[in-house]
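Let us begin with a simple case.
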Amino acid sequence: MRGGGTLRIGAVTAVAVLMAAGCGGGSHTDIGPSHTPSAAGDGLSLPNLAGQKIEVAAVWTGPEQENFGKVLKEFEKRTGATVIFVPAQDPIVNFLGTKIAGGSPPDVALLPQVGAIRQAVAQKWLKPLGPEARAQLAKNYAKGWQDLGAVDGTPYGVYFKAANKSLVWYNTAAFENAGASEPKTWKEFLATADTISASGVTPVSVGGADGWTLTDWFENVYLSQAGPEKYDRLAKHTIPWTDPSVTRALTTLAELFGKPALLAGGTDGALQTEFPVSVTQTFTGGDRAKAAMVFEGDFSAVNIAQTGAEIGKDAKVFPFPAVGDGGTAPVVTGGDAAVALKDGRAAQALLTFLASPAAARIWAGEGGFLSPNKGLDKAAYPNDVQREIAAALIGAGDDFRFDMSDQMPQSFGGTPGKGEWKALQDFLKNPKDIAGTQARLEAEAAKAYKG
């Protein structure tokens, strides 16, 4: 996260069960027929777009795609437009490049990396926000979130969806049987892992097949241990990956990754486990599950719900532990920004809508969603825990940090099998090779930033 400090939340003890129904595949999803524009009584003014079609691309699937579809359906009702959802592949910048080269870019896309916004602007793909979208952005977003969607002072993106990526979810039955309690520090976290291991359950599930989960592990340790100033500098590559602060963070991670017995399936198993499975295997089988804890964001609740575990009873969550002497518990936040790839009032109208509380309210009520929109009434969230997370995010104002890898060039921080993702997967495989990992990270980062 980028800003002037570290966002913190209190201990989180429950999250409501979230909708887990998926939605069909295919190259396009028609959100529904056009509707007569209607006034919603919330003061938001949108143009009449009857007869117009708008394509929106995002990498969302399953429950995320379904709930975003409800947001788009409301836009249809208000404008008369027909919205078509275009499923995109990750990395989305490559997907968009292919679409643009073929002369068929979508009107709007949701970009999950700050670096992707900068790259798209450098390629002259994006259109700046129009006056109506800018007005909603200025009214509803802290300056820090506005800046994340801007390049050289020009606003391009609206951060519609955010995520808290600093939570550790745990199987309550496994904890109770082991006599374990929620740790607050990294030292306590490792001791808890040993306690659970002694009870006969593997303590930690790691989704190492998805490199982005490993960047989140690193970023949480690094932010807590090195502090926000160093975090910002490493994100901008104004200090190298060979810096001693990176050495310390990798050494800390190796205290866990270097003990295969603490990882579900061992090292090889962790490297073959994708994120969704890393969550579900932690909550399938009660106290005999394959793992007792899994680290990842608030969005993990969707996967937990798929196991039938009752969130708040069978599954609970605590903040990522503070690392090092005097370290504070970190919160790393990610987000998805809506950007326009086509001129015209249709794309701008959708961005204006997505910057409004009216759009955020729809998905917030479905769960599995966190909005940086300060105009959104917290009562829109379905439970007290999500309201607490949202209040902490909004209350932080500009005082927050954004996912580091998402701020970097996508070739380094956001591409499967390459850059930071690959280097950290290699590190998980051989956590003793700290110097070699740093050298590879620096070589890849230097190449990406130069490009």
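The second case is a distinct protein. As before, the sequence precedes its structure tokens.
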Amino acid sequence: MPPIKPGSTTLVALESHKLEVTILGPPRRAHNPIVIIIPGITSSVKEWATVTKSLAQSTSVFNYERAGYGLSEPALDSDTRTAEELAAELDRLLSAAKIAPPYIVVCHSYGGIIAREFMRLRKLTDFKGFVFVDANTEETPSTFVMEIATA
């Protein structure tokens, strides 16, 4: 697959399905980071359009739609995939799209759990920074249930 040109959207083939990828911002120079946005589990990256537009004024931004969102094809097991599996899929997607580190990860809600799993798949030197926006942790589901029970 040839490199994805800034300003273009394409479908990147993985093993069983294709995912929508858009690169925005100025052309990336060697060793400059690229921002990866990981939205919450029930959200499209298109909900981050304002943030993407602002960031893309000065840096490259990698937007992707998880399986079943946007133009991305559904995965066979979309409803049962874990954060570890979603992180591994992101890792494969970056390799298939030829998007090398360093990365700055911006994540929201359940995207925070996916981001932490993604970090475990990579060397720490692959990252230049992280932004967690109302990010969940692995403890969120049990905390949420306890809060409802005591309300």
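Helices lie at 49-55, 83-96, 111-121, 140-150. The domain at 9-150 is CATH 3.40.50.1820 (Rossmann fold).
Keep these points in mind for the review questions at the end of the chapter.
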